[in-house]
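Review form for a predicted model. The reviewer records the input and the model, then writes brief findings.
Reviewer: anonymous (R2)
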Amino acid sequence: MSVGIIWTVWRVLFFLHLLQGSLCLRDVYTVIPEAAERGKPVVLRCMYDLENEDLYQVKWYRGDREFYRYAPRDVPPIKVFPISGIEVDREASDAQQLTLKEVTRRAHGRYTCEVSADAPSFLTAQVHGSMYVVDLPKNDPELIGLKRRYKPGMKLKVECISYESMPPANLSFFINSVPALSQHVWHRVGGGENGSLWTAYSTIQFVVQKQHFIRGKIKIRCSAYIYSIYFRSHEQVADEERVVRPTITPLPETREAMVFPIHRVSDNSGTTVEDNASTRFLQLTFLVLVYYTVR
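Model under review:
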């Protein structure tokens, strides 16, 4: 038999093997949390559909090292191979679920589930996933520096702090539930020396405008998150400072009086009665004018 014929037969047999296997081992995937809190248990799942065939075995690897095997024909069906930092909870593990006790930072890494069907296909499939082990902050993020009142034109400067986590928390600012502009926010981290925990700092600074107030208030919120396992927020509210304009009391209305000169004529001047009567008439007219002018 020539090499070409052997190669063709091998390819046909291999194709039939794959075709047969594809009908018995399907929909293989893992459910691995993106992150797990240090010191807490965590569950990893390997899901698959064997259809009409039996399970031969399931293996779990961390990196390239096998640490868990489930073979239903073995007695006992579970075997655990020790890896530093990983402790399997046998009572809570089976063919599709793997439970780890109180994970440590050494449990961080890439995990692989390998599923094998029994005869006649013996098809094997591998799926992967990664998990990070984190230290979460013990408290919510803290806001420092917000005043009780602001008015347009004032500078607002607030710092948000999320203490002691691994990795440092990601911080985001919101103004009235709207994300703050990136040019108004600065980030930094502190700590982390020799394996210690990190503290995250974020500062927002901008000049307050009239549109920042909604019904006389401005809300500043800081949100902290670490992967998909941790999300906390802290919000504070400041009031708009009202400008009090002084009330001006109107002055009472005044009118200017007209003054006319009065010339008195002596009785010894030799004037006649008609002259005296004329003089009194002028005086009386003057008094009437002054009276109505003052009113």
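Findings: The chain has three domains: 3-133, 142-240, 253-295.
Further findings: The helical segments are 3-22, 273-294.
Recommendation: see findings above.
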